[in-house]
Amino acid sequence: MTPNDTGEPEGRRPWERSPARSGPPHGGPGGPGDPRPAHGDSSWHTTRSVPSIVVVVLIVIWTVFAVQWKEKDCALVPTSYLLVITHGTPSVFEGCGDHAIDVTDD
Fold first, then answer.
1. According to DSSP H, which parts of the chain are helical?
2. For the whole prediction, is pTM greater than 0.85?
3. How far is the C-alpha of 83 from the C-alpha of 77, rounded, in Å?
4. What are the transmembrane regions (predicted)?
5. CA 30, CA 90: separation in Å to the nearest integer?
6. Contact call for residues 73 and 96 (beta carbons, < 8 A)
7. Are 71 and 97 in contact (CB under 8 A)?
């Protein structure tokens, strides 16, 4: 092995070099502590959007439960959404109309 222009032997791996002579960092776009991958911002964007996806899924589930209350003659907005929070899903005896126990009179 012959020394290169940095004074280190050729063939040495970048992570084995001393930090004083290593040159630019090899840990990703912003340096060794940056969590973004070195191969582009598309993966970084994906990790940032995971909470958004979770929120959308929760809203969809909340809407499915609210529709169950709407089928029991409750107004969809805001009554059905509030009943999902306060009562969960409706039982066969619960509802907002005359045919069941009116849960809106609580």
1. 42-70, 81-87
2. no
3. 10
4. 49-67
5. 52
6. yes
7. no
* CA–CA separation, 51 and 46 (whole Å): 10
87 pLDDT band, cuts 50/70/90, is very high
Cα 90 to Cα 29: distance, rounded to the nearest angstrom? 51
Summarised one tens digit per residue, pLDDT across range 30-70 is 555 655 555 555 555 666 788 999 999 999 999 999 999 99
DSSP helix/strand/coil, 51: helix
By the 8 A CB rule, do 38 and 29 touch?
yes
62 exposure class (CB count in 10 Å sphere: 0-12, 13-18, 19+): middle
| Residues sharing a CB contact under 8 Å with residue 94, sequence separation 6 or more, in sequence order | 72, 87, 100, 101, 103
At position 74, the amino acid (one-letter code) is C
